[in-house]
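#lab-general

N.A. 3:47 PM
ok so I finally got the sequence cleaned up, no stray characters, all 365 residues accounted for. can someone with queue access submit it? mine expired

B.Y. 3:52 PM
send it over

N.A. 3:53 PM
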Amino acid sequence: MKKEAEFYLGIMSGTSLDGIDVALVDLTSTPVLIASHFQPYPAEWVEALLDLHASGPNELHRAQLMSNRLANAYATATLNLLQSSVILPHQVRAIGCHGQTVRHQPAQGYTLQLNNGALLAELTGITVVSDLRARDIAAGGQGAPLVPAFHDRVMRHPDIHRAILNIGGIANLTDLDPNRLTTGFDTGPGNLLLDAWIAKHRGQPYDAHGAWANSGKILPGLLQSLLAEPYFSAAPPKSTGRDRFNPQWLERHLRGDEAPADVQATLLALTADSIAAAVRRDCTGTEELYLCGGGAHNTALVARLRTALPECRIQKTDVLGLGADWVEAVAFAWLAQQALHLQPGNLPAVTGARHPCILGAIYPA
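B.Y. 4:20 PM
back already:
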């Protein structure tokens, strides 16, 4: 008898603050992406979310209101996707929703992703699994990155040493060495600083293909100063976010007379060089490096990675059957399935947790 399809939805809104990725996935066996949808954030939301990364007037009230706005936006994106794919809400087992990170402080015992899982379940009629990082932190882990467990399940090769590189606002690596346990960690800035700098100086949300960075020249002194950040040399497990890497962090390293295009070129080098150093140091022997996330489309960034890592075959995850833009959303659909099946969703070797954990708070439909 044919096994009934297991449809799940993954919702990802990441550090880049560009919008909402929704993936409809059949997780009956190997993940199959059925349909996908991107819904951009309203421009005024970006500033409101950035404001919530630091203390300010009435911030608890503002955070709760934003959580409700996000839940409504997640529901709209979900229902639009289902309508276009002719799948009914009752056919979906659960939504795995990451929420929008505004604080990530695992050393202080917490991480905070804005969302209202109960409201999302109410609006969609679908069970919701959210707050997926807190349980790992409770067990002494970083709560991040979580996607290496998914990479381990679906992208590992029995003989070839692979690494998966997600270049979102923050970049993270998964090391799939066939001879040892999977490891993974955040390498540092991905697109975050690049996007912030071009938004400030050119009013653009991102540097398409790295063209503006390519028009400038790398400032060696600035690059050396940025790479001296202790996070880069810290040993995994480790994770980071806007709490550490933000425009204020960059400003502390600037003299103030640099040409903006030169700073952009240097920030691109920072992202590429910090990733390359992490691959060489912590993923020794990597033969294949697969890219996903928005940064996978930055041709200037990928070119610098190829120059820095000539020993690696570098390609997008598309060649493995998952489009580079949708890997994280599919991963959160898989994490929802793990939760409903009462299976662990973390890898202690990645996050540093004391033991495997079932992740997420479940809001039944």
